[in-house]
């Protein structure tokens, strides 16, 4: 329905057409955001909120577990270049660490950078984001697996 920045051509009109035909629609998304944030984003992209009966998102399902500390509180965070990663950490009571040994788990929230810890430096991941090539993170993920990090 959208590419992350704008609605695909004709998508809002298609949803409106289906709604007028009595079709009930629910969003099923891999978004790390809560359901209401995902629906609000669709409104910003030109969709009518009343055309959807709700949303189910990966974030909506994962956040209660993160907030309860089910996996621990310190994570190595793969995130976006903007501030979404920091916001996500705060909203879920998590702390980022750049040291794999200090992390309770790895959290994949985005693919543009690994968020540094309190004194660490962010590591940009242009190869992963631009092409999907995992060469920049293969070693890190192998080590995380060896250490038993979820």
Automatic annotation (TrEMBL):
InterPro entries assigned: HAD-like_sf, HAD-SF_hydro_IIA, HAD_sf
Family matches, as Pfam families: Hydrolase_6
Source species, domain of life: Eukaryota
SUPFAM superfamilies on file: HAD-like
Name assigned to this protein: Uncharacterized protein
Lineage per the UniProt record: Eukaryota, Viridiplantae, Chlorophyta, Pyramimonadophyceae, Pyramimonadales
């Amino acid at each position: 329905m959208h590419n992350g920045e704008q609605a695909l051509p004709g998508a809002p009109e298609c949803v409106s057409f289906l709604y007028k035909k009595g079709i009930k629609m629910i969003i099923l998304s891999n978004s790390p955001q809560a359901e209401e944030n995902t629906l609000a984003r669709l409104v910003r992209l030109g969709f009518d909120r009343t055309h959807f009966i709700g949303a189910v998102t990966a974030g909506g399902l994962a956040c209660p577990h993160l907030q309860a500390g089910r996996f621990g509180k310190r994570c190595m965070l793969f995130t976006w270049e903007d501030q979404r990663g920091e916001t996500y950490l705060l909203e879920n009571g998590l702390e980022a660490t750049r040291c794999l040994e200090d992390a309770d788990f790895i959290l994949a929230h985005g693919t543009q950078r690994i968020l540094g810890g309190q004194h660490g430096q962010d590591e940009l991941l242009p190869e992963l984001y631009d092409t999907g090539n995992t060469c920049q993170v293969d070693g890190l993920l192998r080590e995380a697996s060896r250490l038993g990090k979820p």
